[in-house]
């Protein structure tokens, strides 16, 4: 059997809050899951079973992308460690300090849904990344993610409560503190992102808008509740980073 079809391997995205895992058989993503950050060096050729979460060879080739340097170091003792670098991502005009998560998600989004595309990653940070039809980075934006904005009000003020991310939008004109926080954050963020989407679609009217990250589904649900007119051009796909890794795997840069 062709090695590229049969080979098992793992993709690992080290995010700000968690470890995001993907288990592949060749080009096929079989399973994804999340675990907590590790606290000590991984033994050579051995992944802790509690990180695998199911029966699997714990010495598989491992492709790692990371936005947390201290966590990256803890994996470098693993013998089949393969670190993804920004220079390996085949997109044009990426700036040197761009997060590898943004770059891989942009690559994965374009490979899966075609270029041009606008990627909105609703994670710990909320990022927008625009790539044109020539696979060139046009620009984007970064702001605190939804949960981070809610958390910051309770941790940085003396009297404001800690509000969880709600399932439904509250009344825009709120009449108590909790709902005022929900209204202030959600309507401002949703409205702000829509201005980016609307401007992008003026430039690239056939482009897909792809939501990814931990809060992607919730963000989409909010726009459904608002009957956002551009909703039909928005796709939710939590696996864009893994599609980016798969593209690098197919290119032969790793393993």
TrEMBL record:
This entry's Gene Ontology molecular function terms read: ATP binding; metal ion binding; pantothenate kinase activity
Q: Which residues bind substrate?
A: 95, 99-102, 177
Key words, A-Z: ATP-binding, Coenzyme A biosynthesis, Cytoplasm, Kinase, Metal-binding, Nucleotide-binding, Potassium, Transferase
Q: Where does K(+) bind?
A: 121
The cofactor(s) it depends on are:
NH4(+); K(+)
Enzyme Commission identifier(s): 2.7.1.33
Looking up CDD domains in the UniProt record yields:
ASKHA_NBD_PanK-III
Keyword flag Metal-binding: yes
Q: Which domain of life is it from?
A: Bacteria
Instruction: Give the binding site residues for ATP.
Output: 13-20, 124
Cellular localization per UniProt:
Cytoplasm
One GO BP on record is: coenzyme A biosynthetic process
Q: Which residues form the active site?
A: 101 (proton acceptor)
Task: Explain how, and how many, cofactor molecules are bound.
Answer: A monovalent cation. Ammonium or potassium.
> Sorted alphabetically, which Pfam families does this protein's record hold?
Pan_kinase
What does the similarity note say?
Answer: Belongs to the type III pantothenate kinase family.
Describe the protein's quaternary organization and the partners it interacts with.
Answer: Homodimer.
For this protein, the record's PANTHER family field holds: TYPE III PANTOTHENATE KINASE
Name this polypeptide is given: Type III pantothenate kinase
Report the source organism: Crocosphaera watsonii WH 8501
């Amino acid at each position: 059997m062709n090695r590229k079809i049969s080979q098992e391997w793992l993709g690992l995205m080290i995010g700000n809050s968690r470890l995001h895992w993907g288990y592949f058989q060749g080009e096929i993503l079989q399973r994804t899951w999340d675990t907590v950050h590790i606290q000590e060096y991984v033994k050579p050729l051995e992944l802790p079973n509690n990180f695998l979460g199911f029966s699997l060879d714990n010495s598989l080739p491992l492709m790692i992308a990371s936005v947390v340097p201290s966590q990256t170091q803890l994996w470098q003792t693993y013998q089949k460690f393969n670190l993804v670098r920004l220079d390996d991502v085949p997109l044009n005009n990426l700036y040197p300090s761009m997060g590898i998560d943004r770059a891989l998600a942009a690559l994965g989004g374009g490979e899966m849904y075609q270029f041009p595309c606008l990627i909105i990653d609703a994670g710990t940070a909320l990022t927008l990344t625009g790539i044109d039809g020539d696979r060139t980075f046009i620009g984007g934006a970064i702001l605190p993610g939804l949960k981070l904005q809610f958390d910051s009000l309770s941790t940085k003020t003396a009297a404001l409560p800690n509000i969880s991310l709600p399932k439904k939008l509250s009344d825009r004109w709120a009449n108590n503190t909790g709902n005022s926080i929900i209204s202030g954050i959600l309507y401002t963020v949703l409205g702000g992102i829509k201005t980016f989407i609307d401007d992008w679609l003026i430039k690239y009217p056939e482009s897909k808008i792809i939501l990814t990250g931990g809060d992607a589904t919730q963000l989409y649900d909010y726009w459904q509740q608002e009957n956002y007119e551009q909703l039909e051009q928005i796709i939710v796909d939590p696996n864009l980073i893994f599609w980016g890794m798969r593209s690098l795997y197919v290119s032969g840069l790793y393993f």
